[in-house]
Design a protein that fits this description.
This protein has four helices and three strands. The protein has about 130 residues and is an alpha+beta fold. A three-stranded antiparallel β-sheet has the order 1-2-3.
Length: about 130
């Protein structure tokens, strides 16, 4: 007679994760607040992710809005599906200026790398023209 393990009988697998002591305590408090065991909460999170996966990238548009009364900016993302997501609502003008400068520098570096000279040019996969230039 072949001896079966519990995994064979119940056809289950165990998932584990290593957490720091602080992360574990925070998670335990979170579970206690919800009235769930950590195991039940993890199982629920996994099931929700599988049933309703969120794509790695979602189509949308960034929108920065200046609030003249508070002299700050808010950052929103408007998804193509119509959903509006508030990313941050209290960004200083100094932060926006530094972000702008940093993004411009990165885009300029990319354009130099791909040898972009005109505003209408877009990145083209090199395999399309390999050996022709």
């Amino acid at each position: 007679m072949i001896k079966k393990s519990w995994d064979d009988i119940y056809e289950v697998k165990t998932v584990s994760a290593k957490l720091s002591k602080t992360e574990f305590l925070d998670f335990k408090i979170h579970c206690d607040t919800k009235g769930l065991t950590p195991s039940t909460q993890i199982k629920e999170l996994i099931k929700n992710e599988i049933k309703n996966p969120i794509p790695i990238n979602i189509a949308g548009k960034n929108l920065f809005v200046y609030n003249k009364y508070k002299d700050n900016f808010s950052w929103k993302v408007i998804l193509d599906n119509g959903l509006h997501v508030d990313v941050e609502y209290d960004l200083s003008s100094e932060y926006i200026r530094q972000l702008f400068d940093s993004l411009k520098q990165a885009v300029d570096e990319r354009e130099t790398y791909i040898k972009k000279d005109s505003k209408e040019a877009v990145s083209i996969p090199s395999k399309l023209i390999r050996g022709k230039i």
